[in-house]
Every structure is written in structure tokens, then in C-alpha cells.
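Severity: low
Component: inverse-folding endpoint
Summary: output formatting inconsistent between runs
Steps to reproduce: submit the following C-alpha cells with default settings.
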């Protein structure tokens, strides 16, 4: 319109960061599981073919929310595959049975996610098929954590910090889809948004915010789910009112790709528009929640 570029994009081997030309909304968005880069060492170590490995991938979620940067909010996306390292876990949620050496004492080997086979380094994909043909070494896994997990979180904390400095508070939206099997027949037919067990949105505005009212008033697309969300590490970090004064709510969208062909669904463009509308509404809600002096 006025000749000003809409966004500034930073792309590395690890993450994509799309920053708006003007940061207008007190939001930061993250897509931790949409990465589609499958390193050669993973493919060599896996007993599954590349298509089977993609079962845990949140395909195209970064594209669904790509308009956020045009609306005035930054978007962080991981480029590496979730099957390689899951950044929505503690740094060291690891399963001892997957390793040929003894894990250090600081490793959390007993979390619910580890017991399900979905630790920082997953044992299995969504269909419960085992990923690895043989046991791993801790040195190799530690390299993944140092080279991928930690840079991703450094980028996330930078975006959140920039947003808080600019607005005096922030809403962090962690973007995930809901598989059809978990969503039920209705969500399997249509891409919908619901409070769900596998997606999070973190509200860190101020101590007096009312996240329940905030989320229920954002858009008619929001609905309740019968699936309670387990408290993941990111949610625990940024949604602990008693300890940090911050709040957390959950939401998910139905998967935007065909889960057999991994192609975008016909309604993909409409869902992009819906997500754009949602980002604008969330931005307005977050703005209204901020202290007036901010």
C-alpha cells in the first residue's frame, strides 16, 4: 500500500522467523511441529519409510498462520521434523530403553509423554509404530538437543521478550492440529477449532486477566472439547498463575491435510482466512487485556 515491506523473514537450517514490518499486535505465534526436514541420519536409523515418519508432522500449520506477520505479529516455525526432536517437551524427556548407554541423572525418564513413547526423542510415530531399528547413543541425542532444541527455544524466548517489551504483556499462541481420530467424526469432516488435548495457547497479559472469558469471546469457531489437555512443559512454564502470574488456555484446529496423501485439503484456503480472522481477534482481545498504561 504505502511501499513498506509487509514482513522480514529470517530462514536458517533450524527455524523460520517471519517478523512484521510493524509489530502491531501483542501476539507471538509458534509452529513447533510443522517442520518437514528429515535429516539423513534419522532416515538411516529409522525402520520406517519417510511417509510413515510424517505421521507425527503437523503439515502446513505454518502456512495456515502465515498471514500473522502481515497482520502485525511474528511467527516462528521449526524446520526440522518433530520425529527428529520434539521442542514441545522438556529438553531431556528421554526413555532409557531407547539407549545403549546409561542416561545422566538429570534426564526425566518417567514423564507421561516418555511413557507414551513421545518424549523429546520419540520412540514411535502417531500409529504407535517404532521409529528406530536399533538403540541410540546419548551423545547423538544430546547433539540434536544442543543444535536444534536449544536454538528453537532461544528464538521463541526472543520473540516473546520482544513482544513483552513492546506491549507490556503478550499472548503466545502455540499452533497445532488435531488428528481426525482424536477429533471425532465431526472434526474429521471439517477443520474446526476446539479446546483440545494437543494444542496450546498461552496468555501472559497480567495477573488480573481472565483467560476463560477471553478465549470464549474471541470467535464463534471456538468450542469445548471432551479431551482434557495434559500439562506439557511449555504450558507449565507459561501458564502458572500462582508462580508467574501468567495464564494458559488450549485450542486446536482439525488437520488441514489429508492424512493419507499429506496433500492440503480442498478447504485449505478458507481455513487460512479463518486463521487470519482468529489472529486479528486474538490480537484485539490481548490488547484489551493489557494494562492501560502499557
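Observed output (run 2 of 3):
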Amino acid at each position: 500500500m504505502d511501499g513498506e515491506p509487509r514482513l522480514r523473514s529470517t530462514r536458517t537450517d533450524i527455524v523460520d522467523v517471519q517478523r512484521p514490518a510493524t509489530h502491531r499486535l501483542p501476539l507471538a505465534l509458534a509452529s513447533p511441529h510443522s517442520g518437514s526436514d528429515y535429516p539423513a541420519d534419522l532416515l538411516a536409523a529409522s525402520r520406517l519409510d519417510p511417509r510413515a515418519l510424517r505421521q507425527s508432522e503437523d503439515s502446513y500449520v505454518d502456512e495456515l498462520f502465515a498471514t500473522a506477520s502481515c497482520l502485525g505479529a511474528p511467527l516462528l516455525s521449526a524446520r526440522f521434523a518433530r520425529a527428529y526432536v520434539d521442542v514441545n517437551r522438556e529438553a531431556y524427556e528421554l526413555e532409557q530403553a531407547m539407549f545403549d548407554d546409561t542416561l545422566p541423572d538429570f534426564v526425566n525418564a518417567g514423564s507421561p509423554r516418555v511413557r507414551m513413547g513421545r518424549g523429546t526423542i520419540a520412540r514411535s510415530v502417531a500409529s504407535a509404530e517404532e521409529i528406530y531399528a536399533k538403540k541410540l547413543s546419548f551423545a547423538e541425542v544430546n547433539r540434536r538437543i544442543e543444535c536444534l532444541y536449544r536454538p528453537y527455544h532461544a528464538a521463541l524466548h526472543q520473540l516473546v521478550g520482544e513482544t513483552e517489551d513492546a506491549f507490556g504483556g503478550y499472548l503466545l499462541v502455540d499452533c497445532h492440529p488435531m488428528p481426525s481420530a482424536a477429533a471425532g467424526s465431526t472434526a474429521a469432516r471439517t477443520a474446526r477449532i476446539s479446546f483440545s488435548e494437543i494444542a496450546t495457547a498461552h496468555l501472559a497479559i497480567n495477573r488480573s486477566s481472565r483467560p476463560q472469558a477471553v478465549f470464549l469471546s474471541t470467535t464463534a469457531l471456538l468450542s469445548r472439547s471432551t479431551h482434557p489437555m495434559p500439562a506439557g512443559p511449555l504450558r507449565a512454564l507459561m501458564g502458572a498463575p500462582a508462580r508467574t502470574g501468567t495464564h494458559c488456555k488450549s485450542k486446536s484446529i482439525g488437520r488441514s491435510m489429508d492424512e493419507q496423501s499429506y496433500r492440503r485439503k480442498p478447504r485449505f484456503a478458507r481455513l487460512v482466512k479463518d486463521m487470519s480472522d482468529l489472529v486479528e481477534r486474538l490480537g484485539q482481545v490481548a490488547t484489551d487485556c493489557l494494562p492501560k498504561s502499557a
